[in-house]
Design brief:
ABC transporter involved in vitamin B12 uptake, BtuC; about 270 residues; mainly alpha
Length: about 270
């Protein structure tokens, strides 16, 4: 018989994985892995601001991540600083600001390891409700903008020619990424959020051919990583958040094996047949 806290952790983790997988596909397609790291580091700054200003943590993380994303877009368009330098500046700057702000919280007990690496076993029923409501909202928005967002991913010029307004869909994508980081923060922590977005999507890319199947398989891989990671954590008494990421990494390694190659060939045969 599984303990109640373990069941809550699994339900919460599955909710995050089901939406992180499809959203992570766009990070992989657009090669935005370092951008995801930047937003996740900004999340720590948002947490610190939430404690200092005594506001909702999830809301503070979303707003902070979105502001950092907008700052990145503005600096890239300004053109005087290269994209990788902008990402490095914002990523490490936001992380350092967050740690400095947390050092001022002398009257508040802050679990820094929990913030950095997650504390999924401590999720409450209220946390689960928030996770599924935000995940559902992200899923609906992603479904509504899927065509213009994918078109802009394939060819920005073609999307503009078709009147799909790629700049607007890019902004919506930033909002969705900020939201998923705020949701996933308690599951795997701010330093491992990007892994939950990237590894399942990268694994799915090796196993499928089309965009929609890839999104579906990415969600499935994330789900399996959550379940496998939590049971592995329970068995080996290891940290739950990192164990989920390790499980996702194991699934990626499996996709590199002959079994993964066979699955990819079968998927390609179905699509062409």
């Amino acid at each position: 018989m599984l303990d109640d806290f373990f069941v809550r952790a699994m339900v919460a983790g599955i909710g995050v994985a089901l939406i992180a997988g499809p959203l992570g596909c766009f990070i992989v397609w657009r090669r935005l892995a370092y951008f995801g790291d930047t937003l996740s580091h900004a999340a720590l700054f948002g947490i610190a601001l939430a404690f200092l200003l005594e506001v909702n943590v999830t809301l503070a993380v979303m707003v902070t991540s979105l502001l950092v994303a907008l700052a990145m877009l503005g600096l890239r368009r300004e053109g005087s600083v290269s994209s990788d330098a902008v990402l490095g500046l914002l990523s490490h700057g936001a992380l350092a600001l967050g740690l400095v702000c947390l050092s001022f919280l002398t009257t508040v007990r802050v679990d820094l390891l929990g913030l950095l690496f997650g504390d999924i076993l401590a999720v409450s029923r209220q946390d689960i409700l928030v996770i599924y409501l935000l995940a559902a909202a992200i899923g609906v928005v992603l479904w509504l903008i899927w065509r213009p967002l994918f078109a802009a991913t394939v060819s920005r010029d073609l999307a503009e020619a078709e009147g799909l307004r790629p700049a607007r869909t890019d902004l919506v994508l930033m909002v969705l990424l900020a939201a998923i980081i705020a949701v996933a923060m308690k599951i795997v922590g701010v330093l491992l959020i990007t892994a939950l977005l990237i590894i399942p999507a990268t694994t799915a890319r090796r196993l499928t051919g089309g965009p929609e199947p890839m999104a579906f398989v990415a969600a499935l891989v994330g789900l399996l990583a959550v379940v496998g990671g939590l049971f592995g954590s329970l068995t080996a008494d290891t940290p739950a958040g990192p164990s989920i990421v390790v499980a996702a990494l194991v699934l990626f390694v499996v996709s590199l094996s002959p079994l993964g190659g066979l699955m990819r060939r079968r998927a390609h045969t179905k699509e062409t047949g």
